[in-house]
Design a protein that fits this description.
Layout: E1 2-5, H1 11-25, H2 42-50, E2 54-59, E3 62-70, E4 91-99, H3 108-122, E5 127-132, H4 137-145, E6 149-158, E7 162-172
Length: about 180
């Protein structure tokens, strides 16, 4: 798999990737509970592409994975005792990690997660953080395999889930 920043020319393919994934995952055991035009929205995807924060993993020209890596920490992140007390500009946050269900079990989520850590490190970040639904064992397995550690469980309100418990994970890159 080749991982790269998504470009404007990829926009429709990225939207199709996420929306197809939502259809494929509906009713599955590890459904991310995402909804088309709620999360992720077309506007969020375009904003991530324009902001150069959306990464795609491709195989033979097909998008098989995607994620956003930015500095937007969700409400409640500031109330947690993280492994490193880094200022917001020294933290990267992983959002919307997705792997085509047809490619499940091949380690693509671990590969994307490691790419997030490499990219964050190159940007001078001290930490990569994320939140995940507590029962999402494949995602949690990918994160812990890539070296992330559980930090806390907090309630976060998102458009697609409402107020829900999320587990927070962190990869400490350095203490500055």
């Amino acid at each position: 798999m080749r991982v790269r920043l998504a470009e404007k020319k990829d926009y429709e393919r990225v939207v199709d990737f996420y929306y197809t994934l939502i259809d494929k995952m509906r009713g599955s055991k590890y459904n991310p509970i995402w909804e088309k035009d709620v999360y992720p929205t077309r506007a969020q995807l375009m904003e991530a592409i324009d902001g150069q924060t959306l990464y795609i993993g491709t195989e033979k020209g097909k998008i098989v994975s995607a994620m956003v890596l930015n500095q937007k920490q969700s409400e409640g992140y500031d109330q947690v005792k993280w492994g490193v007390d880094a200022p917001p500009e020294k933290v990267c946050v992983m959002h919307m990690l997705a792997v085509d269900p047809d490619c499940a079990g091949r380690g693509l989520a671990v590969e994307m997660t490691r790419e997030a850590v490499r990219t964050a490190s190159q940007r001078g970040a001290q930490s990569v953080r994320l939140d995940v639904l507590p029962g999402n064992l494949p995602a949690i397995g990918a994160y812990t395999s890539a070296g992330f550690r559980y930090v806390a469980t907090i309630r976060i309100s998102y458009a697609d889930t409402g107020l829900t418990d999320f587990e927070l994970y962190e990869y400490v890159i350095g203490r500055g």
